[in-house]
Structure formats: C-alpha cells, structure tokens
Design goal:
By secondary structure, the chain is an alpha+beta fold. The protein has 14 helices and 14 strands. The protein has helices spanning 40-52, 138-148, 151-158, 168-179, 184-188, 192-200, 206-236, 244-263, 270-372, 399-490, 506-524, 536-554, 556-607, 644-662, and strands at 3-15, 18-24, 29-34, 81-91, 97-112, 119-130, 133-135, 614-620, 626-634, 637-638, 664-665, 668-670, 686-691, 697-700. Helix 8 (244-263) runs antiparallel to helix 12 and helix 9 (270-372) runs parallel beside helix 13.
C-alpha cells in the first residue's frame, strides 16, 4: 500500500521550554519562524519524541532536557510533559484517509517515606494514548506507530540531513537494495566475450576466478624468469665440443700404428721409431690446431645463439608492449564512452531545467499582464428619493422628519464613498502586492535560467575537453601501436640453434691451411733403412696414452648432445609459457572489463533513481584498481563540500527518491531553512524552521 502521512496539528505542554503551544500545519508548506531560542527546533523535537521517544538528534528522553525549567535553570516539579499530534494517514491508491491522534505523556513519580513529610522524586514513567484511548504498554503504542510508519524508514524520509550523513557503507547498502539485483547475466548481455567468460567461471565467483587466473599467471611468470638461468647453467656445464671426425680418424690411425708395432715388434728399427716420432709430433700439432678450430666454431655458434636470443627478446618485448597498449586503448574507449554519456545526460538535464524555467517565465508573464490589466470596478451610488409616508404613500410633510431623512441620506452617501475608497485602495494594494510577488518569482526564474546556461556552458566545455583528451589518446595509441608493429616486423623471430659454416670463419680457414701444410710434411716422412733399432715399448706406450686421451674426448659427445637437446627443450618450454602468459593476461583483462562494466551498471541504476544528486559507488586506488565506496555529488561537488542550502536541497532530492521507492510520504522538518532561497518540489508535507528577527509565528504557503 502507498500512503502519505500528514500532520494537522501538534500540541506541546511543558515540553522543554514551551509551556502550552499548539501549531497547525498546512497541507503543503508550513513555515515556523522566530528568533533563536523561541522554540522552533523544539517543535521538531516534539514531533520525533511523540513517535519514538527521541529528539531530532536521536537522543532518548532520558538524555535530553525534556522538562521545563525555571529562571534559575532548575526543573519545575509536578508537571506532566506531553506532546499530542493529529495526523491524516492517506491511502494514496484509493484516496481513503484516516485521522489519528497520538499522545505521549512523561510523568514524574513522587514518594513520601514513612515518618517524613518530604516528597522524593523516585523516577518517571510514560503514558501512551491512541485516539484518546490509553494504552497499557509501550510495546502496544510502538506497534500502533509502526503501523503508521516504521522507525527505520521514518528518519530517512523526514530529515533531509539524515541519509547523506550515514556511514558510506550504510548508504551503499541502502542504494544497492533500491537499485535491485544486478546479475552477471545482465552484464554479459552487452558483450559476447562476457558470455563465454561466464561459462568458464561456472561454480565460482568472478573474484575467485580472477584470483585463480592471477595466481596461474604469477606462477607462469616465475617459471619464465627461471628459464634463462636454467639455460645458462646447462651451457656452463657443457664441455667444448671437439672435432669428432678428426679424433675418430686419429684413433683409427693410432690403432693401425699399434697393430703395426705389434706385428713388427721383433724387427722394428730405430729409424722407424724416429720417423714415427716425427710423424707423431706433426700429428700433435695438427690435433692442437684442430682443437682450436673446434673452439672457433663453438664460439661462433654461441655468439649466433646469443644474437638470436636478443633478436627474439626484442620481438617478444614489442609484442607484450603492443598487447598492453591495446588494453589501454580499450580501457580509454570505455572510460570515454561512460564519461561522455554522463556529460550528455547532465547537459540534457540542464537544458530541460532551463526550458522548464523559460516556460514558467512565459506563463508568469501572461499572468502578470492579466493582473496588471485588472481595473477596479466603480459602483454608482443610488441617491435617496423624498421621504414617503409608509401608510398613504404621499410625500411626508413633517419638516423634522424630512430633515432627518436628508441627514441620513447624506451620511449614507458619505459612508458609500468612504467604503468605495477603501475598496479601491485595497484593490490596488492587492494588485501591487501580487505583481511584486510575480516580479520576485520572475527574478528567481531568470536567475535559474542564467545558472542553467552557466551549467550548460560548463558541461559543454568539459565534454569538449573530454573529446580533445580522447582524440589525443587515440592518436597516441595509434602511434605507439604503429611503432611496436614496425619493431615486430623488423625483428622476426629466428632459430636459437644456428648452423655454422666454418668456411665463413677467417680464423678457422687460416688454421685449416696450416693443418694442410702439416699433413703434407707428415706424408713426406719416410722410414729409414731396415736395421735401425726401435723402442717399440716407448712408442706403443705413447700411442696407447694418446688413444686413451682420444677415447676420453670422444666420450664427451653424449654429454654435449644431451645438453643441446636440453637447451632446445628449454626454448620450447619458454615459448609455451610465454603463450600461456599472454592468454592468461588476456583473460585477466577481460575479467577487469567485466568488473568495470558491472560497476558502471551499478552507478547507472542507482543514479537513475535520483534527480540532482549523483552517487559515486566506487573509488579508484593509486594502482588503478577500484574498490566499493559511496560518495554523494551535487553538480560535480561532493556533498560534504556543498554549502548548507545545497546540502538541504540534496537531502530533499534523496527523500523524494526514498519516498517513491517505499511508497510512503511523511512530514519533512527542515531546520535552518532560512539558508535556502528556493526549495525543489517535494511530494511530502514540508515544515520550514526559519530564524528571523520576529516572535515565534506560523505561516502556511
């Protein structure tokens, strides 16, 4: 049921400083004015105390001075302190109305002890009445009051300061309840990617899913960071690869030499030993140079591998930076669309208010002309005729009677003229007063038009600045993306296992020439004539030692090949992790966009309930994240920073929305109302408490 509660009268007896005061209230606006200390706020205190036993600040009757004091500040004993009020409770759907009288009486309890005549104040109790009928308990009275209006609703729709001074969490909870449930499905309806996201989030909240994705991305990043260290460890532990072909050739040669030595052990000559020693020496030099060749090839391959890593790093960094720029570009586009929508709506509101004021000015001008053209309607006095006899109808001949008749006629004519002069003066005074009031109303309307023009200009300027900033950002994003795409194009990924052609290495080629010369010398050595003595054992020992050394070097092949395979595996693992990281980052960005869209929808729904007040439901942290908040803004200015009049009008706008949401209206008491030049339209009864230089008085508008 929708209802409206109207206060018709309020009587305060011995309540605070008022001994016996009755205030009647109009259906729309009632102004209670007077100097400070004349009891204006006491009327509001009495209103709240009558319903819930608390003053306008929320203090119970045991914590505020309800009693009436004498000139010395001492309370006057043996007084009952009471407030009574008459209210109309109207069903706004059916039009049915019920008149209700509430009365609350605060009674002193005195006791005289045995053997004494002195009374002692032992305490107090409160009596309750509903439509003149006493109620037995406070619970019964509270139930009657709650049926009219619950206490938790009463305060927020009768005090314009109350709601906007609640803790922000309480405000936010109330506003979200008014805005209704916003499901993830509602948000996903705007973007196909969100619908796919919700299918992946099944069984958990979006925040839980975001934490899961963030944890997985952090784990992947940790693994990626370890890849270079692991590769460096493998490289450090990998021995330099020798020339396996040369070693195999040399091994076969040594094995053949050993076989020859064994076969010719009994007949080898010293000349053969010398020849073999010379050949072995030359072979040693050849091996040393080949080892140097192997080192040169290995260094070249390592240098090429490092260059490949650097080339790929540049491309990977550019790809990552390009993704970041694209995310920033999307975020900027969303922010611009949201802010542009708010400014456009605000400009439309200001224009509508201006148009409304201009229509009122036009209507007022017509009314003014009509009043100004009004003319006093002069009346014609009917002159009395001769005195006629009431019996015979002939003209009276009595001179005395005739003279009295003439005197009466003159007096009547003078009275008629005096009355008409008074009516004429009153007519033009009333006309002037009405025209003056219309002039004041017109001046206020013109002021409103001027203010709205200023607001439109300000908002239009902000919109232009927003456009400029957005266009600059778009141009910057395009430039940055083009630069990064060029870097990616200029640095294509290359293999990290390069093939080295030794013929392209000058140092290797130079060594090869020296090796060819040494091999030619070795081939030119011939054995001396038979008969020379040979130290077969020494030669065999030397060749055996060399053979053992060659076998040891050939044994490194398996270790080196295993290391090379491990490096390839690590490169593949790094590529896989990089791709996984990019995918997780994209998912995390999509979640962020989803959360931002839900935030925007919350603010859109909440602010759609209010006219003139905007609530910011989230605040931005230093790191760019957002967290729940609730701050009221009036014309772009925080409620706390607004002047007194702005805060009152904002509170009335909030009350209008709360009354519409709950379907209940109740009298609104506005203290310090003299600070407000123009009140916004309200659907509730309005009681203005105004400080003036005069005595306590009540007027109805």
């Amino acid at each position: 049921m929708s209802k409206q509660v109207r206060i018709k009268s309020l009587t305060l007896i011995n309540f605070k400083g008022l001994r016996n005061v009755t205030v009647t209230f109009g259906n729309d606006v009632t102004t209670i004015s007077g100097r400070n200390g004349t009891g204006k706020t006491t009327i509001a205190d009495g209103f709240y105390w009558l319903f819930f036993g608390k003053d306008s600040e929320g203090n119970t009757d045991s914590k505020f001075g309800i009693k009436t004091n004498d000139a010395n500040g001492n309370f006057i004993p043996d007084l009952e302190h009471q407030v009574a009020g008459v209210f109309d409770v109207i069903d706004t759907e059916t039009g049915e109305a019920e008149t209700v009288e509430l009365r609350r009486v605060y009674v002193e309890e005195w006791k005289t002890e045995k053997g004494t005549t002195e009374r002692t104040l032992k305490g107090h109790h409160t009596d309750y009445f509903y439509n003149g009928v006493p109620l037995k308990t406070k619970t019964e009275y509270d139930a009657k009051v709650a049926a009219i209006i619950p206490e938790d609703l009463f305060k927020v729709i009768t005090d314009p300061y109350y709601f906007l001074t609640l803790h922000w969490k309480a405000q936010r909870e109330y506003l979200l309840r008014m805005a209704g449930t916003i499901s993830d499905t509602d948000i996903a309806a705007n973007r196909a990617e969100f619908s796919e996201l919700l299918r992946r989030v099944t069984g958990k909240t979006m925040e839980e899913y975001r934490k899961e994705i963030s944890a997985r991305r952090g784990k992947v990043e940790t693994q990626l960071e370890k890849i270079p260290t692991r590769k460096d460890e493998v490289t450090r532990n990998t021995p330099i690869a020798p020339d396996y072909a040369a070693l195999e050739t040399e091994k076969k040669q040594i094995q053949a030499d050993l076989a020859n030595i064994d076969a010719a052990a009994s007949s080898a000559a010293e000349a053969n030993r010398v020849a073999y020693e010379q050949a072995a020496k030359i072979q040693g030099e050849i091996n040393t140079k080949k080892a140097e060749q192997n080192r040169i090839v290995f260094d070249a391959k390592e240098a090429a591998r490092k260059a490949a890593y650097e080339t790929n790093r540049v491309a990977d960094d550019a790809t990552r930076d390009l993704s970041q720029v694209q995310r920033e570009e999307t975020s900027e586009a969303n922010y611009y669309a949201r802010e542009k929508s708010v400014l456009t709506a605000s400009i439309a509101t200001a224009k509508r208010r201006k148009e409304d004021a201009e229509k009122e000015v036009a209507a007022l001008r017509v009314r003014w002309e009509a009043v100004n053209n009004e003319q006093f309607q002069e009346k014609t006095y009917q002159t009395a005729g001769p005195l006629l006899c009431p019996i015979f109808g002939h003209q009276c001949a009595d001179p005395g009677a005739v003279q009295r008749h003439q005197c009466d006629a003159i007096a009547a004519a003078e009275a008629f003229k005096k009355n008409q002069d008074t009516e004429r003066a009153n007519f033009y005074a009333n006309q002037t007063a009405r025209l003056d009031r219309m002039d004041e109303e017109g001046a206020q309307l013109n002021k409103t038009i001027k203010e709205q023009d200023g607001e439109i200009a300000r908002l239009t300027s902000e919109a232009a600045k927003l456009d400029t900033k957005h266009n600059e950002a778009v141009a910057d994003f395009a430039s940055r993306k083009a630069n990064l795409e060029k870097v990616i194009a200029d640095n294509p990924r290359v293999s990290t296992d390069p093939t080295i052609n030794p013929q392209n290495l000058p140092a290797w080629v130079g060594l090869q020439k020296e090796i060819d010369q040494l091999e030619a010398r070795r081939s030119a050595i011939t054995a001396p004539a038979p008969g020379a003595t040979t130290d077969h054992a020494a030669k065999k020992a030397q060749l055996s030692a060399r053979l053992s050394e060659i076998d040891q070097k050939l044994g490194l092949r398996a270790t080196i090949e295993a290391s090379e395979r491990r490096l390839v595996e690590l490169d593949k693992e790094a590529a896989t992790l990089a791709q996984e990281k990019a995918s997780l980052q994209i998912e995390e960005d999509l979640i962020d966009d989803f959360v931002k869209d839900r935030m925007a929808e919350v603010e859109r729904r909440v602010n759609g309930l209010f006219d003139g007040v905007e609530f910011r439901m989230y605040k931005t942290l230093v790191n760019g994240d957002k967290e729940p908040d609730c701050v009221a803004y009036i014309g772009g200015v925080r409620y706390q920073d607004k002047n007194h009049a702005g805060q009152i009008n904002a509170g009335l706008a909030v009350i209008n929305a709360l009354c519409a949401f709950h379907g209940v209206n109740a009298p609104i008491f506005v203290d310090n109302a003299e600070s407000v030049n123009e009140f916004p339209p309200v659907s509730s009864q309005l009681i203005r408490l105004v400080v003036s230089n005069g005595e306590f008085q009540t007027t109805h508008n």
